Amino acid sequence: MELGNAIFGNSRGEYPIERGEGFEDELSRLFDAYAPSRDNSWREYGEEFENDVFKVMPYWWGDCTCGAECPKHSKDCDVVVKWSDWVDARINYCSDKPDKHGLAEVNIGKFPEFENKFPAPKCSCGAEANWQEKEEHEADCKLIAPNFLFKPSGFSIQWYKYPLRDSYMSHDISLDEFNKIISRCIDSLKEGKV
Fold first, then answer.
1. Nearest to 137 by CA among 63, 86, 72
2. Residues 6+ apart with CB under 8 A from 26
3. Reported pTM
4. What is the rounded distance in angstroms from the CA atom of residue 120 to the CA atom of residue 7?
5. Which has the closest alpha carbon to 130: 71, 75, 79?
6. Is pLDDT of 5 > 60?
7. CA 169 to CA 154: how far, in whole Å?
8. Alpha-carbon span 179 to 194, nearest angstrom
9. Calpha distance 188→183 (Å, rounded)
10. How far is CA 50 from CA 27, 53, 101, in A?
11. Coil, helix or strand for 69?
12. 129-175 pLDDT, tens per residue?
């Protein structure tokens, strides 16, 4: 999990999507189909769209849109108490590993061995669990809404900031299965599904 997502993000789930495996290309294919204009500032983030078959929702930067009470971490929560030490350890670990541009790499996704040795602090006060509880939010609350939803099966994806950055899917599916889902979504546009 990336630093910003761990603190502010919404993408959580059981099945992570590895970047560079082709899922991004499939989402781009869908974005090109329903929002082909590159004039849209949300183009690379996925423009909000919904019909009877699928829904795309860009990453939501705001607060809860349904009025649910969203608890904050307590001052003695491990996320609050241990976070800066974990960030310092991550920077120290990654700083001597330059990326292709010669800059220090701090993207933890590039160094899974760090996460295995030094897992990010987890919420110990229950705030995160309560915040993620869908029962407390209305189904259309943008704070918890998936970024991609395939309505026929309920398959969904959540990502952090832009498509497939630190992302998770609701069901463990193959790229081939995802390709079929995206093809069905594109077909729904041609069929004029509202």
1. 63
2. 175, 178, 179, 182
3. 0.65
4. 11
5. 71
6. no
7. 11
8. 22
9. 9
10. 15, 8, 39
11. coil
12. 665 554 577 777 887 888 999 999 999 998 877 788 788 899 999 99
Tell me the CA end-to-end span of the chain in Å, nearest whole number.
36
List Cβ<8 Å contacts ≥24 apart for 38-44. 44/162, 44/163
pLDDT digits (tens, 9 = 90+) for 110-142: 556 666 676 777 778 777 666 555 457 777 788
Summarised one tens digit per residue, pLDDT across range 31-88 is 889 887 755 444 566 678 999 999 998 887 777 788 776 667 778 888 777 777 777 7
Distance of alpha carbon 130 from alpha carbon 72, whole angstroms = 10
Q: How far apart are CA 138 and CA 70, in angstroms?
A: 13
3-state secondary structure 102-161: CCECCCHHHCHHHHHHCCCCCCCCCHHHHHHCHHHCCCCCCCCCCCEEECCCCEEEECCC
The tokens of 12 are what? Answer: 């959580």
Q: How far apart are CA 89 and CA 53, in angstroms?
A: 45
Q: Is the dihedral of CA 153, 158, 159, 161 positive or negative?
A: positive
